[in-house]
Every structure is written in structure tokens, then in C-alpha cells.
Amino acid sequence: MFMPIRVLFLAVLVAVAGCGKREASSSDPIKVAAASDLAFAFREVGAAFEKKTGKKVTFTFGSTGQLAKQISEGAPYDVFAAANVSFVDEVVKEQACDGATKAMYARGRIVVWTKRGGAPVTALTDLTDARFVKIAIANPEHAPYGKAAKQAFETAGIWDTVKPKIVYGENVSQTLQFAQTGNVEAAIAALSLAKASDDGEYMVIDENLHKPIDQALVVCKRGVNQAVAKEFAAFVNSDEGRAIMKRFGFLLPGESA
Known about the structure:
- The chain is α/β, with parallel strands linked by helices.
- The protein has 10 helices and 10 strands.
- The model is unreliable at 1-22 (pLDDT under 50).
């Protein structure tokens, strides 16, 4: 018996619609968009979360501003961990993420990083010296760590002197790579990344020279599994998650240097 054309057409539409978005499975890894300064810390947090819960996490690390733009334009991330709370507020305002899940998780620190055996740095003003021909910072237009670096130079009164030396990285990880490969003599990097590198030396920059790098996360609306996303977000701020973050040099919410 042949199926009427109209019924067959409707059946095809239902099948196609069903292929558009499948139901989330507990075995599906959640996708976390995370600021570059979290590259080492969050990999450990993710591994600890997976060991404890059996649920998988995948990470995309990049510039906070660029990740926020992707999320606002519909990228299907489950969690957004920003290097500055203002970008979380932005994606919540765009209705891409759930403001009720916003949580502070850390405060970042910046350092002057130099390759071991290179010119030592004991004060930020040392970077005005002729020994430092090029200095890398993350692009302050979309990277919170780059913005903090520029603020520190301005507050120290040396921005006009060092500006001609500045090389911009797309994110704070790339900035450190510039120094590690010898393309620049120094980089303003995240303390969390400096602690994970074994080929250089660093000096922590006085946090009074720049606005606080208050970092926040939020669960996003277009991810595949909001329940697991909320579970991961809570784990970051659990005792186990915070112990990992602290080991990488992050200050915890409410702490001061």
C-alpha cells in the first residue's frame, strides 16, 4: 500500500526536524570556552572533575573577548570562563548565557616573564632599559591580561617609553610564547602560565598598578547539557577545584595578595 503524498511529506519533515538537535547524553562531553590564562589550571580541574564524576569536559582556550563574541553569535558552548567579569556580563546581556549561574572563581595576577639566562627584571621600570628591545603583551582591546599590562605601564608612568617596543599577542598564551621563542626579550604574562613554564624567570607585578583581574564563569544556553555544565561550574568553586586554582597562583574570591 502506498502512503499518501501529504502524509509522506510530513513524515520527512518530522525526521529532518529530529536530526536538527539530538537530546544530550550523559556521555556527551561538555564544551567549555575558557580564557587563555586557564590553559594549565583548567586542564587539571577538568581531569579532576572527570575522575570524580565520570563526565567528560573539552576545552577551547582563547582571548576572552573573542570567545565572548563567538558565544554571542551562537557558538554552542556549555560554560564560559572569562578572564574578566565584564565579558560574562556582556554575554548575559546578549541572552546567550544564564545570569543566574554567574559566579566569580578567581582573581588573576600578571608578571614580567623573561627567558632564563636573559636580562633579569627586578622592577617594572627595568623594561625601559635598552636591553629590552621588544616586549610582548596581549592585545588590550580584547584580552583582560593585556589591558591590565597596559594599565600597569600607565600607572608606573612608563607607557610612552615602552609603547614603541610593544608587540601584541592575540591572547596571553601567545604573548608568553613570543618570549619563550626569543622573539621578544620580555612578556607580560599570566602568573598561572608562568608557574607552569620551566624555561624562564618572572617577577609578579604589583596589583595596585592595575585594576583587579576578577574572573567569572557562567553557564550558556546553547550547550548540549546544562545539568553537567552547572555541575562543572560548581566543581571549579569546590574545595578540590579551588586547591588546583590556588596552586597555579590564582587568588580565590575574597582573597587579597
